[in-house]
Specification:
single chain, alpha/beta, TIM Barrel, eight-stranded parallel beta barrel, 12 helices, K_chnl_volt-dep_bsu_KCNAB-rel, NADP
Length: about 325
């Protein structure tokens, strides 16, 4: 069981906000009833997990759901990435230390690793479940065929742990999971933990056509944030987002709350992963939980965004964690 809104700390803890502000955001999440927290070993090279672990220290562990991920590079060595047994085991142990916990509730394969046999990956994850270090496993940004292959391996090997979650990028604009991935997950009982529901903050309406990004926004921040936000900024899009504001107001919601409520309204979505740099943003995001929007609102959103909506399943992330110059041992290949 997860809260409808999950607090995520990508691009925030260890990068955009200092530790005190990060702790304040986590406290605001707890105060707002958020019980699920999402992070990854790669976020700020482990610093995000450290900050989250410190912020949650002292909380009743059984009341929390802590999710982390493994696959993307955490160092410069050949085994500091991917989904090999070695990296999964070592990364999990490091995450447990940083998070100050004995177990991770949900451990997700951050990307698919074509250099490692799928059987090796899934058995390694199953071993962590058997050892009690992980309770459930999931995937993030895998294609439908990759998920189907994993499900077949789990059945064929009779593994104890099954895939319970998929963490895709999903919002009003980016709907590439709808043709293939979402139907597959519905059939298999896999819940969606949708990230970037606000499209890097663009769907909040704070970025206005012809104006500089506002102070305090990701578009004006340091580090990697502006590059990510820049991918979705464009005058035509910004103008249409402004047209969404009265739709949100008619629902008694802010634009951010409408965007989150829209994702939660979609079939198979269990939770929306939303980050924040200020406690008030956390409270606003959490308030979208339980808000109902009807079919007429959904139709209006589609009408406004029109041809800017992307449903191409071929765009599911294919970024590989393991570079081709790294070779596996002969025994592993066999």
């Amino acid at each position: 069981m997860v809260s409808e809104v999950t607090y995520g700390n990508w691009l925030t803890h260890g990068e955009l906000v200092d530790r005190d502000q990060a702790v304040a955001c986590v406290r605001a999440a707890l105060d707002a009833g958020i019980t699920t927290f999402d992070t990854a070993d790669v976020y700020a090279r482990g610093a995000a997990e450290e900050v989250l672990g410190a912020a949650l220290s002292g909380e009743r562990r059984s009341s929390l759901v802590i999710a982390s991920k493994v696959c993307l590079p955490t160092g410069d060595g050949p085994n500091d990435r991917g989904l090999s047994r070695k990296h999964i085991r070592e990364s999990c142990e490091a995450s447990l230390r940083r998070l100050r916990t004995d177990y991770i509730d949900l451990y997700q394969a951050h990307r698919f690793d074509e250099t490692t046999p799928l059987e090796e990956t899934l058995v390694a994850l199953d071993d962590l479940v058997r050892q009690g270090k992980v309770l459930y496993i999931g995937v993030s940004e895998w294609t439908a065929p990759q998920i189907e292959s994993a499900l077949a391996v789990i059945r064929d090997l009779g593994l104890r742990s099954r895939i319970v979650s998929n963490q895709p990028q999903y919002n009003m604009l980016w709907r590439i999971i709808e043709p293939e991935i979402a139907p597959l997950c519905l059939r298999e009982g896999i819940g969606q933990l949708a990230f970037q529901p606000l499209a890097q903050g663009v769907l909040t309406g704070k970025y206005r056509p012809g104006q500089e990004p506002p102070d305090g926004s990701r578009g004006k921040a340091g580090g990697r944030a502006p590059a990510f936000v820049g991918r979705v900024l464009g005058p035509q899009l910004l103008e249409r987002v402004q047209d969404l504001l009265p739709v949100a107001a008619d629902c008694g919601l802010s634009a951010a709350q409408l965007a989150i409520a829209w994702v939660l309204r979609q079939p198979g979505v269990s939770s929306v992963v939303a980050g924040a740099t200020r406690p008030e943003q956390v409270a606003e995001n959490a308030a979208a939980s339980g808000k109902e929007i009807d079919d007429a609102v959904l139709a209006r959103v589609d009408e406004i965004l029109g041809d800017l909506i992307d449903r191409d399943p071929g765009k599911t992330a294919q970024m590989m964690a393991v570079r081709p110059e790294w070779r596996r041992t002969a025994s592993s290949e066999g």
